[in-house]
Amino acid sequence: MNLSTRTLGTTRPLTVSTLGLGCMGMSEFYGNADEADGIATIHRALDLGVTFLDTADMYGPFTNEQLVGKAIAGRRDQVQLATKFGNERLADGTRVGINGSPEYVRAACDASLQRLGVDHIDLYYQHRVDRTVPIEETVGAMAELVEAGKVRFLGLSEASAANIRKAHAVHPITALQSEYSLFSRDLEDEILPVLRELGIGLVPYSPLGRGMLTGKQEWTTLENGDGRASAYFPRFQGEALDANLRLVDEIGKVAAEKGCTPGQLALAWVLAQGDDVAPIPGTKRVKYLEENVGAAAVTLTGAELAHLDQVVPRDAVQGDRYGDMSHIDR
């Protein structure tokens, strides 16, 4: 199938594939990582028309950008390449903190360009808001990167409505990347209306609820190194997990009636939230990529969307998105 495209942003519009690919898990956080599998998955994505690739300097750290750079070598003109700065880490994995200083913005961009092996980044996000630096200063430095030709479009990730407004006043913001799925809908209250008012696109990460919405994983037998087994992800622990898996069972019943997989249904729900929404489900395996792409062919009626709201009430999910929500700007 040929994937269609969507446009993020109206003031500074960027056209991307309807579904993107989150590349983080190819290097870290979700169990064993294999570079060859990751590169094969990216190559298959490009062949299928999934051209919107998402990475960040902190994934690995640093190694995920290198992997993506290898995978797109010779095919750069097919790709809408997104990466992020701001979650500062050392090469040994030590987390330094959130850094939005103008000096760091410039240095981080140059380092990302080198690792990716490209002369420009299509969409450059501030990964997390640094509360010690006015966002106007951070975005001002990001705007200088646009003027220098190193970056084409600017984005924010997990920013509050107030900071989105402040940032957009300095330089047009093309997209906000935040967690959004059937299991994470808090941005519908305040953030989504502001995005629509200002003409900013939405790039949902974890649109499959970190895999839970696929209904596939046995969560008591995760690979070593899979962060979902830790208290950092409360939705995967104890009674919260039990309650959330009951919701997944209900989603599975709806998917069976629809003739698609639970994951495809969950992605179709996200895609149905607006033409300015381009989710980036992550995977490190070709077979799951191909399943995800199939979601673009699943169309949900108004009645089916209403039924999903009944099956998964907005506030039914148990547990916070993260064990420590202090890095989320709200």
From TrEMBL:
<keyword id="KW-0560">Oxidoreductase</keyword>
<dbReference type="InterPro" id="IPR036812">
    <property type="entry name" value="NAD(P)_OxRdtase_dom_sf"/>
</dbReference>
<feature type="domain" description="NADP-dependent oxidoreductase">
    <location>
        <begin position="19"/>
        <end position="311"/>
    </location>
</feature>
<dbReference type="GO" id="GO:0016491">
    <property type="term" value="F:oxidoreductase activity"/>
</dbReference>
<protein>
    <submittedName>
        <fullName>Aldo/keto reductase</fullName>
    </submittedName>
</protein>
<dbReference type="GO" id="GO:0005737">
    <property type="term" value="C:cytoplasm"/>
</dbReference>
<dbReference type="InterPro" id="IPR050791">
    <property type="entry name" value="Aldo-Keto_reductase"/>
</dbReference>
<dbReference type="Pfam" id="PF00248">
    <property type="entry name" value="Aldo_ket_red"/>
</dbReference>
<dbReference type="InterPro" id="IPR023210">
    <property type="entry name" value="NADP_OxRdtase_dom"/>
</dbReference>
